[in-house]
């Protein structure tokens, strides 16, 4: 953790609680910090899994901090205040703000200014700040990753009340590409939370065999350093490939410097400026172009027409093929308004249509998770 943060912050192992991935870390923090009906404020768009991880079993609520494309989806003071007000009008007690740095789905790292704004906001309101830094090792372009811990130290928050109210979530699922190993962590300066989270971690332990294997692997400093820098180099190359490829089809992406995905602007391909049109376009891309991307509405984006496209989980050849398919799709005369069922009618038999319906349901559930709750 220190190495990824340029050794600007040191982490005390006594303040670290191991969990079965970031999923478990985020839920555990909710159990520790919020009572049912209490709220956390989250900048939109956000990782769809948060609806499940933060709300389902804890009874906590999420109130959006509305971020928009007008400033590259950056967090502003007014958006924070609006969100806080909205929670109050819904009679919710605000317990904190949760950010993902770098962001899933935007692929952007928070700026120092945004972090300072967040820290002073939680200081003023007397609430918590959770920073999910699961993508911290994926920053492949400048500006460099800045951890909230660094900002706390630089702004003299050490050993103040705020120091105890800022918590980091981490996991090896993304930086080391090990989601199946289920290795996550909470890092907090608050001893009471360390103690409560340690007790709760019994419900999501990392097996001792996994810990043993990992500690041997991570102890090889030369390997981990090389792995992270090589990974960043490859992500940078793959990101550039996708951005350039999409640009050649007239599609642009939000400028980003981290993560495993791009935030793609397809607003001009919508039939109307609505979420219904977004879903219509998404279905075409899934069923006709046969590419699995996520619609922005699944991430609670407030503007229809944005999509998240992953570029890291495939070979270069596959990515080239995906870009090729998008190109053909965009170039085709009838991108907008094609009825999927009609266009496939000719050689469609009953069994493929049934398969499609089931796939549609499954895809929708997978992408939207707990959208309605
Ligand atoms: C922001 C964020 N937090 C948490 C998780 C869950 O990670 P894990 O596999 O470590 O549970 C993800 C996974 O995509 C994520 O994007």
TrEMBL record:
Catalytic activity field: S-adenosyl-L-methionine = 1-aminocyclopropane-1-carboxylate + S-methyl-5'-thioadenosine + H(+)
Broad enzyme group: lyase
An example molecular function term from Gene Ontology annotations: 1-aminocyclopropane-1-carboxylate synthase activity
Cross-referenced Gene3D superfamilies: Aspartate Aminotransferase, domain 1, Type I PLP-dependent aspartate aminotransferase-like (Major domain)
Pathway assigned to this chain's UniProt record: Alkene biosynthesis; ethylene biosynthesis via S-adenosyl-L-methionine; ethylene from S-adenosyl-L-methionine: step 1/2
Protein keywords: Ethylene biosynthesis, Fruit ripening, Lyase, Pyridoxal phosphate, S-adenosyl-L-methionine
InterPro entries attached to this UniProt entry: Aminotransferase_I/II_large, Ethylene_sulfur-biosynth, NHTrfase_class1_PyrdxlP-BS, PyrdxlP-dep_Trfase, PyrdxlP-dep_Trfase_major, PyrdxlP-dep_Trfase_small
Record-linked CDD domains: AAT_like
One Pfam family matching this protein: Aminotran_1_2
EC numbers for this chain: 4.4.1.14
Required cofactor(s): pyridoxal 5'-phosphate
SUPFAM superfamilies: PLP-dependent transferases
GO biological process: amino acid metabolic process; ethylene biosynthetic process; fruit ripening
Span of domain Aminotransferase class I/classII large: 5-326
Family to which this protein belongs: Belongs to the class-I pyridoxal-phosphate-dependent aminotransferase family.
Protein name, entry field: 1-aminocyclopropane-1-carboxylate synthase
């Amino acid at each position: 953790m220190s190495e990824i943060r340029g050794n600007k912050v040191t982490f005390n192992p006594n303040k670290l609680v191991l969990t079965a991935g970031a999923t478990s870390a985020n839920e555990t923090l909710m159990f520790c910090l919020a009572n049912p009906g209490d709220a956390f404020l989250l900048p939109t768009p956000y990782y769809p899994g948060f609806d499940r991880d933060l709300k389902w079993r804890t009874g906590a609520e999420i109130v959006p901090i509305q971020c928009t494309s007008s400033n590259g989806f950056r967090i502003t003071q007014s958006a924070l205040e609006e969100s806080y007000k909205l929670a109050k009008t819904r009679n919710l007690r605000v317990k904190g703000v949760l950010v993902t740095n770098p962001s899933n789905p935007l692929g952007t790292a928070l700026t120092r200014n945004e972090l300072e704004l967040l820290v002073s906001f939680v200081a003023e309101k007397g609430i918590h700040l959770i920073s999910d830094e699961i993508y911290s090792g994926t920053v492949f372009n400048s500006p460099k990753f800045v951890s909230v811990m660094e900002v706390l130290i630089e702004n003299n928050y050490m050993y103040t009340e705020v120091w105890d109210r800022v918590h980091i979530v981490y996991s090896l699922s993304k930086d080391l590409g090990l989601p199946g190993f289920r290795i996550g962590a909470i890092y907090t300066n608050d001893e009471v939370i360390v103690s409560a989270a340690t007790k709760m971690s019994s419900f999501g332990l990392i097996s001792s065999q996994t810990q043993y294997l990992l500690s041997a692997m991570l102890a090889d400093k030369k390997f981990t350093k090389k792995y992270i820098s090589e990974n960043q180099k490859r992500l940078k190359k793959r990101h550039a490939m996708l951005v350039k490829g999409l640009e050649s089809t007239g599609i642009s992406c939000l400028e980003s410097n981290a993560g495993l995905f791009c935030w793609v602007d397809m607003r001009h391909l919508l039939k109307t400026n609505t979420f219904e049109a977004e879903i219509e376009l998404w279905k075409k891309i899934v069923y006709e172009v046969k590419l699995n991307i996520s619609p922005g509405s699944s991430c609670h984006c407030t503007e229809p027409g944005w999509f998240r496209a992953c570029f890291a989980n495939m070979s270069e050849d596959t990515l080239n093929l995906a870009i090729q398919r998008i190109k053909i799709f965009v170039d085709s005369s009838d991108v907008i308004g094609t009825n999927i069922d009609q266009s496939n009618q000719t050689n469609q038999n009953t069994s493929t249509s049934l398969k499609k319906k089931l796939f549609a349901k499954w895809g929708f559930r997978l992408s939207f998770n707990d959208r309605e709750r």
